[in-house]
Write a structure and sequence with these properties.
The protein is α+β, with helices and mostly antiparallel strands. It folds into two domains: 2-98, no CATH class; 120-387, Bira Bifunctional Protein, Domain 2 (BirA Bifunctional Protein, domain 2, 2-Layer Sandwich), CATH 3.30.930. Helices cover 36% and strands 21% of the residues. The protein has helices spanning 15-18, 33-36, 39-48, 55-73, 77-89, 91-98, 120-126, 144-159, 174-179, 207-211, 265-284, 325-330, 359-371, 378-387, and strands at 2-3, 51-52, 130-133, 138-141, 164-165, 171-173, 188-190, 200-202, 218-219, 227-236, 250-260, 290-293, 305-311, 314-323, 333-335, 347-349, 351-358. The strands form five sheets. Strands 5-10-11-17-14-13-12 form a seven-stranded mixed beta sheet. The relative contact order is 0.15. InterPro entries: aa-tRNA-synth_II/BPL/LPL.
């Protein structure tokens, strides 16, 4: 069981109410009462993830903080300073509530398949096509693997023609990671060695990068829904024990994000992404893949549901239903039609679906097939020949 206190602390996300934290860049929704109104679902979400949390204690501490918060918002000049001190004294009530994971929409029951070991690293190294930098835990490719890598990257972009290409920052502040409830120990901290430099992480193409441009955004009626964006390039994580195309700290990825006004619309987006990615890997690249709905214990904190497209136990792509969990924390809203006699004003927080495909892992499995005597698709062979 994972102790609750090991969950991410939200001091940067809640900097406005904590004091002495990082530069304030996020203004999350702090009215979390609706989360505690769904106690049964919250307990299921925690049990699924193997998290031990005293929900009643967290709720009581949060209620005390929120009561003070409401007084602070309505306070006059004479009492506002004292109430601000009380808010900071009761900060754990807010921080522990913000650390709670997303509720579970649905979870799969299939066990994680047995991972078939990969032989691509030894093969490519012997061919002089890959060099492993063990000190920095990265790999360097030359020759035809680079050609195939670039081809897959371009084809994944073409796979989602409705997604607008963007080039997000490769860096994200701690508050962004906390808004996504991501374990910061899995990311690479970055500094310029000055004492005043804010806590920042090198993330590359990732969920923090692709959501950051929309921080504190309010979409209007003129936007075409769903709003969708995509990016490709290097993604970065902290060091792992194994260094190869599937586990290096720098890997090539394709990321796509959909934002919708309707939770019901997410189902169609998820199904379409599953079909597109699965068909591309299976039919386009001749990889034998299976789509699996992940179990609750495999869900990331920001996910309410997730599917993985796997080849012999190796996850090549992940489709994540997020809902409005992240948008409430990054303050990404939409404004709809004004209220009428028959309907209420349609404002709210956007609903999200995120798809991340690991290009380097796909390349690794293609090389594994080659080692086993399986020919790659003809168009890949033709592209390789042209590169020489």
């Amino acid at each position: 069981m994972i102790p609750y206190r090991q969950l991410v602390r939200m001091s940067h996300l809640a900097a406005r109410f904590v004091g002495g934290a990082d530069v304030h860049v996020v203004d999350p929704l702090v009215d979390l009462r609706n989360v505690f109104e769904q106690t049964d679902q919250l307990k299921i979400a925690l049990e699924c993830r193997n998290l031990t949390v005293d929900v009643e204690k967290v709720k009581n501490e949060y209620d005390e903080w929120f009561e003070t918060y409401q007084k602070w918002k309505q306070a006059d000049k004479e009492s506002i300073s004292q109430l601000k001190k009380e808010l900071r004294a009761k900060k754990d009530g807010l921080l522990n509530a913000l650390a709670l994971p997303n509720l579970v929409h649905h979870a799969g029951k299939k066990q994680t398949p047995l991972l078939k070991p990969s032989k691509h690293a030894q093969y490519l190294a012997q061919q002089g096509l890959m060099r492993i930098d063990k000190q920095n835990h990265v790999v360097h490719l030359v020759g035809y693997p680079v050609v195939v890598q670039k081809m897959i990257r371009e084809q994944l972009v073409d796979l989602f023609p409705g997604c607008q290409p963007i080039s997000p920052s490769y860096f994200a502040r701690a508050a962004i990671l906390e808004a996504l409830n991501i374990d910061q120990s899995t990311c690479i901290p970055f500094t310029d060695d000055s004492s005043h430099f804010p806590l920042t992480y090198l993330v590359g193409n990732s969920l923090p990068a692709i959501t950051s441009p929309f921080l504190k955004t309010s979409f209007g009626e003129k936007n075409e829904w769903p709003i969708s964006v995509q990016c490709t390039g290097a993604s970065y994580t902290e060091k792992k024990n194994q260094v190869d195309l599937g586990n290096a700290r720098q890997r090539m990825k394709h990321c796509a994000l959909w934002m919708s006004k309707s939770a019901e619309e997410l189902e169609g987006i998820i199904n379409d992404a599953n079909v597109r990615v699965g068909a591309y890997l299976d039919e386009g690249l001749d990889l034998e893949v299976k789509v699996r709905e992940v179990r609750g214990s495999e869900l990331k904190n920001y996910e309410s549901q997730a599917f993985v497209v796997e080849n012999r136990g190796l996850s090549l792509s992940r489709i994540s239903r997020i809902g409005d969990y992240v948008s409430k924390r990054l303050n990404i809203q939409y404004s709809g039609s004004p209220a009428t006699e028959k309907s209420e004003k349609s404002d709210g927080f956007v609903q999200m679906v995120y798809v991340e495909t690991d290009i380097d892992r796909i390349l690794a499995r293609l090389v594994d097939d080659l080692i086993e005597g399986k020919e790659p698709p003809k168009y890949i062979r033709d592209a390789i020949k042209k590169s020489f």
